[in-house]
Design goal:
32% helix, Rossmann fold
């Protein structure tokens, strides 16, 4: 228990989000000793020495590649993100990317920029040059969407409204996403099935071992000649060397990527954007508000929502006295916790325990004050990573 939680704010976090952390319970600063939580956008935490005081990390965005998740898990520190908060911003950029590629807008803009505005033949040159940039309409073309989370579902819906056919693939689609997916989206049973049918391919998957290089030379060879790949996921989910070869051969007509690097710079057919996916005022505000709410609720009440390493655990309080335990997912953990409380004569009002892979999390409300000796005894149980006592102060 602490009077004020110290929050280290790295990068620029939207003020709308920071306001969700009331001043009487939280002290916010970019430079703080022994922070209880870190709020971050793009700052790299991999080389950060994790302070003993740290209880939570909040990423104001969806990707968490800049956070050492395994190290946080070993300490029992949940890492929160903001899935879906930037979904509309990314959806709109995907539509813009398709239009950039289909209407040759990137090359057309460069052509206009190369002309002398004072040239008396300007209009003649514009009319003569525009023939080189004739494109095609999106309607009646097929968009393949790989990854049917919040963003993928919104992209699919937008494409359908533009008159496109949509085929989607996600082996781990959630129930909520399945309900959000438009009924006219054809569900593919494999990545290969999506590749074979798509004129456009839009990727919306996290970068993990299973997705690294998932679209390679063999996959591109299955696509229709002249197809376009849009990557607003992470650069590593495609084989970029194979992308350039496919562009040279004409197998691909375009690659729109939000993750520029020297290999792709100034290559024909490549349209690079400076990581603009979530760069809107609305998305930054939404992400900051979501993650601030999650960190606040965790620090004050032990509630977990949208953690990338711990299960969601939401338990309405039935008592002023609450204990939160992060532990390895091993047998008899709940029994050990209950035993220590019973030995101290504590009556459990309500309890919940949930697991996610190797980690588990338990919330316990009891009817009376919990002595420090009980907290220490629970902390000493083999497999317990962190114990927090969270009594209400008013």
């Amino acid at each position: 228990m602490t009077d004020k939680y110290r929050i280290q704010v790295l990068n620029n976090i939207s003020a709308g989000g920071l306001k969700r952390l009331p001043w009487d319970r939280f002290a916010l600063s970019a430079d703080v000793d022994d922070p209880h939580a870190i709020l971050v956008r793009s700052a790299d935490l991999h080389n950060l020495e994790i302070p003993e005081s740290l209880l939570a990390v909040g990423r104001a965005g969806s990707g968490t590649n800049n956070i050492p998740i395994p190290a946080m898990s070993m300490r029992g520190v949940p890492v929160f993100n903001a899935p879906g908060a930037n979904a509309n911003a990314v959806k709109e950029l995907v539509v813009a990317g398709m239009l950039l590629a289909a209407r040759n807008l990137d090359d057309a803009l460069k052509y206009l920029d190369s002309l002398d505005p004072d040239d008396p033949e300007l209009e003649t040159k514009i009319e003569a040059g525009k023939k080189a940039f004739a494109g095609y309409e999106l309607a009646n073309h097929t968009l393949g969407v790989v990854g049917l989370g919040k963003i993928g579902c919104l992209v699919a819906d937008a494409a359908i409204k533009l008159g496109m056919h949509v085929i989607g693939y996600d082996p781990e689609i959630t129930v909520d996403s399945a309900w959000s997916l438009p009924a006219t989206v054809k569900k593919a049973h494999s990545l290969s099935e999506v590749l074979k049918h798509s004129n456009f391919l839009s990727l919306h998957v996290p970068l993990v071992d299973a997705t690294r290089g998932m679209v390679d030379a063999g996959g591109m060879a299955q696509m229709k000649p002249g197809s376009v790949i849009l990557n607003f996921s992470r650069g590593g989910v495609v084989d970029e060397t194979a992308i350039l070869e496919a562009l040279k051969s004409g197998q691909l007509s375009g690659y729109v990527c939000d993750f520029p690097n020297p290999q792709l710079a100034r290559q024909p057919g490549v349209i690079l954007l400076p990581h603009l996916g979530a760069s809107t005022r609305e998305a930054e505000e939404n992400c900051a508000v979501m993650v601030a709410d999650q960190v606040r609720d965790y620090l004050l009440d032990g509630i977990i929502r949208n953690s990338v390493n711990f299960p969601d655990v939401i338990l309405p309080r039935e008592s002023r006295f609450r204990v939160a335990i992060a532990n390895a997912n091993v047998p008899n953990m709940v029994g050990g916790i209950s035993h220590e409380m019973a030995m101290a004569g504590l009556n459990i009002a309500t309890m919940t325990n949930k697991s996610r892979k190797d980690l588990a999390y338990t919330l316990v409300d009891v009817d009376s004050e919990v002595p420090d000796t009980v907290i220490k005894a629970i902390a000493a149980i083999d497999g317990v990573l962190m114990v927090r006592y969270l009594p209400l102060t008013n």
